[in-house]
Amino acid sequence: MIKTKFNYDYYLRKNTLPHIWCPGCGDGIILKALLRAIHKCGYSKDEVVITSGIGCASRLPGYVDFNTIHTTHGRALTFAIGMKMYKPKLKVITISGDGDALAIGGNHFIHAARRNIDITLIVFNNYTYGMTGGQYSPTQPLDSFATTTPFGSIEPPFDVCNLAQAAGATWVGRSTSYHAVQLEKFIVDALNHTGFSVLDVITNCHISYGRRNKMKSPVDMIKYQKEKAVPARSAENMSPEELIGRFKTGVLFEAKDKPEFCGEYHKKLELLKTK
Amino acid sequence: MSKNIKLMQGNEAIAEGAVIAGCDFFAGYPITPSSEVSEFLSSRLPKMGKAFLQMEDEIAAMGAILGAALGGAKAITATSGPGMSLKQENIGYASMCEIPCVIVNVMRGGPSTGLPTLPAQGDVMQAKWGTHGDHAIIAITPSSVNESLYETIRAFNLAIKYRTPVVILTDEIIGHMREKVVIPDKSEVEVIDVKLPDVPPEKYNPYNYTSGKVTPLAPMGEGYRYHVTGLIHGETGFPSQKTDVIQNAQNWLIDKIYKNIKDIEKFEEFQTDDADILIVAYGSTSRSARQAISMARAAGIKVGMFRPITIWPFPEEQISNLSKKIKKVLVVEMNMGQVILEVQRAACGSKIYGLHIVNGEPITPDNIFAKIKEVSEN
Q1: Is the CATH number of domain B268-377 3.40.50.920?
Q2: Is the confidence metric ipTM above 0.85 for this complex?
Q3: Which CATH architecture has domain B4-188?
Q4: What single DSSP character describes residue A101?
Q5: Distance from CA of B131 to the nearest CA of A (A)
Q6: B24 — contact with chain A (CB < 8 Å)?
Q7: Is the overall model pTM greater than 0.95, yes or no?
């Protein structure tokens, strides 16, 4: 356990800065919340492994002083699973964008959830492929615009949290880059959970998404996050019509009785030893 | 001590070789004719306290072995044609990030779903060029069950020594046939282990493009914190777009293999001393060629064989030297003409003939003998 005073510099690889993110991007807010959360959990830098895929969010590992793996597009969870299975004592975190986690990486997402392997996945959900110029993603709201939906999207979006829960994840939550304090708390909760935890973080890409959807500035998009977020408890008293265009925040699902994958594997190994 | 001799299937011999090499991680996805490798390891590895995973697809299996290898595991996956195609992007990642791993491709007929499960040797060029971009790779083509075991051990050693993916390019015939295997004791074979770097963490760079030496890959979680990325990176591991860094990185990926070709190459010469015709064949096809050579010699035609065991990097120098004294070269392979292209380059002073039969059946000694007669009379 580290009991030192928190200091961002201790966790940043300052020689790799400045980062590639656009001014006003929400990704930096999530990065800072992640560092505060890791500090609160008391992990040493040597025991943390962060894997990521491809995209803006996936550049995060390069900036932070842990064991970091910037993998191939959509495959961050597969590397994380290999690492966790081989070295279960390490704390493995995966950073992924909405396209990375749910389009090209969708198969790995559901299977990691099904296994309930002890990995924390943080989805930086900005409804778009920011790095490639704003094409539509699997979480982009219906009727919104992207460089590849110039006439409005007709594809129903995934709800990251519903999908994670249905596939078998045992801790599921949502926050936003506006709710920075809540975000930090949820990352701590997700990291402390044993099993597959998925935190959907609504973040802003005003450059690629907002600009085409009447939210040109970071402020517009942060207001969107503030106004459209509905705490899960409040949502219980709202009609489906009232919830259209809004999203629930909070710890949306938690199960403690489903066995964790590496633990189960280890139990089998122990059983084999006695045979 | 009496020798440990067993009757074994080729795929089982690969699994056995992996165990002897100290393999501690397998991830795969079922595909014929390679599935027995994973079936055997699904029983062997857990009994040794090691990790076995069946992933959701071949892409995931390749990602998982690389994740484990970055943790310091000796990791292997096994597949066949379509699965090999799916693994290609992450094989490129392994080349770029210099992550040791072993990939078994038990070749079947292709392209696409092709011929499950009939033999072919159509993935030779894919083993070298399957992933995008400039890189080098090591690929090994065993031609017997016994050789499958020993070459798997060598594959792990080469992967760690040169920090590279190594492909075991076997075929359906070798994978599924049963033969005698002499199982070695661990003390009888060379096994290279994963090591910590010999410098302290603060002095460690995960890459070294200039000294000519391959830096050990520090297992993650042991105090050596570093960054791994598929972007072109400098010696510290962080991405770079500087022209000199890019060129150094590209040169290194090729040089570390080709400048060490003497250590990596392995081949067999069979009755080449007095030969008038040289057969070049590998894998299961070389077995038919051996029989055809006896038939030819009985008929008074002097034929020999060069059999690459390490097929990538290609043994250009040996073939070039042989072609100086043997003026007719016959390449026999179960594809429409792949290794023959390399032979044409290396043996440009000789007349090159090809026997390429791809019909789902092995190339028989009779097929080859008939072609030898044709070449001899030509």
Answers
A1: yes
A2: yes
A3: 3-Layer(aba) Sandwich (3.40)
A4: I
A5: 13
A6: yes
A7: yes
